[in-house]
Write a structure and sequence with these properties.
Layout (H helix, E strand, L loop, with lengths): L1 E11 L3 E4 H7 L4 H8 L3 E4 L8 H16 L8 E5 L10 H8 L7 E4 L5 H14 L5 E8 L12 H4 L5 E11 L5 E9 L7 E2 L26 E2 L1 H22 L9 E4 L4 H11 L10 H4 L6 H11 L9 E8 L3 E8 L1
Parallel strand pairs: 4-5, 4-6, 11-12
Antiparallel strand pairs: 1-7, 2-3, 6-7, 8-13, 9-10, 12-13
Bound molecules: acetyl coenzyme *A (ACO).
């Protein structure tokens, strides 16, 4: 059987470290409020005036992943790029990354599934590999949130949460008789939750996609808006549900999982999940304190850190990726080294 195996990982963040204290100079917020509600202490944002797109951060992460995998860019059959903050409205960041890698003609696709974007991408890579359509796939999750946040007190509920970052993973199809690589996956979406977390403009559904006459408060339509309580409550319900689904699919128990990598949206969400699933603290990987919510990049960044620190990666170890985010979208993937 063909299995999707992770060969190398990499991560990248911009050079500007932004602490909660820095934010409290831009808007009416405090380090205490942010840490207590979210667990975030700092995040990385692009420098003021710097031109840096999701594909640029993705490129840096990809080079590191390629080096660890021992691949050259020419080895890649397909690029899958997850982002909610593409470099430009179109074409997709996957195409931009392809040319920055010095490649031409290989397919490149963008996945726009927000915090679940990396999982949608990994499952798509798995499907390409199982069907024999591709053998070596570069999966990237990358976000530049900071250039699109309302950094005034009006936008403080959202702005304090998000960080810029990228994670890349080299996924290879391997013919094996061993139960390894991507074991099982589950993806879901519920578009009725779209309004709870979205950025409205620019919008092709409007008679004028680029309204030039926005006045005063209407400018906020370019910034992400969120019904935080609703997102929180739905996340803490869906994460355990989808975990049970994927475990059932693989005929495994939560105790068979060595380490869980939840999407890093809010430490409180992950702590609620941990208590609900009765998992010890040592089996759940969190790094939101240092990165904030990097959306599609959060799981590959976490995996890269955990591999670097030898927290996971031993043959036969089983890990779980689980995410919930805008859309709504949610999913889970079980993986064995
Ligand atoms: N600093 C200080 N005060 C603030 C801030 C801030 N940054 N933001 C909001 N407040 C104020 C509010 O105005 C409100 O004041 P009021 O009581 O006077 O009206 C008070 O703090 C409480 O606000 P709540 O929104 O009720 O705070 P809550 O405890 O719900 O926490 C939070 C907000 C952290 C956003 C939480 O709801 C949450 O984490 N939600 C989920 C976020 C998430 O998971 N996003 C997911 C995915 S992202 C993706 O998919 C792209």
């Amino acid at each position: 059987m063909k299995r999707a195996v992770i060969r190398g990982t990499g991560r990248a963040v911009p050079s500007r470290l932004v602490t909660n204290a820095d934010l409290s100079e831009m808007m009416d917020t405090t380090d205490g409020w942010i840490q207590e509600r979210t667990g975030i202490k700092q995040r990385y944002w692009v420098q003021e005036g710097e031109i840096l797109g999701a594909s640029d951060l993705g490129l840096e992460a990809s080079h590191k992943a390629l080096e660890k995998a021992g691949w050259k860019p020419e080895d890649i059959d397909l690029i899958i790029f997850a982002t909610l903050s593409p470099d430009i409205f179109f074409p997709g960041s996957g195409c931009l990354l392809q040319t920055k890698l010095g490649l031409s003609s290989i397919p490149a696709l963008d996945i726009r599934q927000q915090c679940t974007g990396f999982l949608y991408s990994l499952v798509t890579a798995d499907a390409y590999i199982r069907s024999g359509l591709a053998g070596k796939i570069l999966v990237v999750g990358a976000e530049i949130h900071s250039t699109g946040l309302d950094k005034t007190t009006r936008g403080r509920d959202v702005a304090v949460l998000f960080g810029d970052g990228a994670g890349a993973v080299c996924v290879e199809g391997v013919e094996t008789g061993t139960d390894m690589g991507v074991l099982a996956s589950v993806l879901h979406a519920d578009g009725s939750g779209a309004g709870a977390l979205m950025t409205e403009l620019p919008a092709s559904r409007l008679p004028n996609r680029i309204p030039l006459d926005l006045k005063g408060e209407e400018v906020a339509r370019y910034y992400p808006v969120m019904n935080g309580k609703s997102v929180f409550k739905t996340a803490v319900r869906k994460l355990p549900q989808v975990t049970r689904e994927v475990l059932e699919k693989a005929a495994l128990d939560i105790q068979d999982v060595d380490m869980i990598f939840p999407h890093q949206a809010n430490l409180r969400i992950n702590q609620a999940y941990q208590q609900y699933m009765k998992i010890d603290e040592g089996r759940i990987f969190n790094n939101i304190d240092r990165y904030g919510n990097t959306t599609a990049a959060s799981i590959p960044i976490a995996l890269d850190e955990a591999l670097e620190q030898n927290i996971v990666g031993r043959n036969g170890e089983t890990i779980l990726f689980v995410a919930f985010g805008a859309g709504y979208t949610w999913g889970a993937v079980l993986y064995r080294f």
